[in-house]
Amino acid sequence: MTIKSHSFSTLHEALVVLLGQGLSLLESLSDAQYVEACPEANSAGIGGHYRHTLEHISPLLTSLTTDLLDYDAREREVRLETDRQYAVTSTQKLLLQAKTCQPQDFDKKIRVKCSVSQDAASPIVESTLAREVMYAEIHAIHHFAIINIICSLKGISLPETFGVAPSTLTHRETATA
User: CATH number for the domain including 81?
Assistant: First the structure.
C-alpha cells in the first residue's frame, strides 16, 4: 500500500491526500478483512470505522451548496461498512468532488448542527467550511489510527504513518533530527 506524504499546504490538498489514503487502504484489503469484526476492539471492524469516517466527510462537500452542515443527519449507510467495493466507489466519488473544489470554497460561512448530549436539543453554531474540513480530517486520522490497530491485531501491515496525526509525524522528524 502506498501512502502519499503528509506534506501539503492547504486543507484542500489535505482532504485529497486523506481520501487517497482511504482508497489505498480499501484497495489493500480483501472483502473479508474489511467486514470482519474485531472482538478486541469492542467487536468493531474496519468497515464500521471507515463508514463513520466517510459519513463525516461527505456532508462537507454537500455544504458547498447549502448553509447547514447537520452531523446528526448522517445516513449511517450500512452498505458502506459491509461492501468494500461500494466503499471504494464512494471514496472515488468523494475524491473527485474534493479535487474539483477550489481553495476559496473553504472560506464559506456555514451553520453546523451536532448533538452534544442525548438529553438536549442539538445546538446550531456558526463555523466555516475550512474549520469543519479541519475537524473531519483530524477525526478521520483518529479513526484511521483505530483501523491501524485493528489491522495490527489481525496481522495486516499498514505503513507506519497510517493513522498518525501530521503534528505527530512532524514531532517525530524533529525529535530524530
Answer: 1.20.120.450
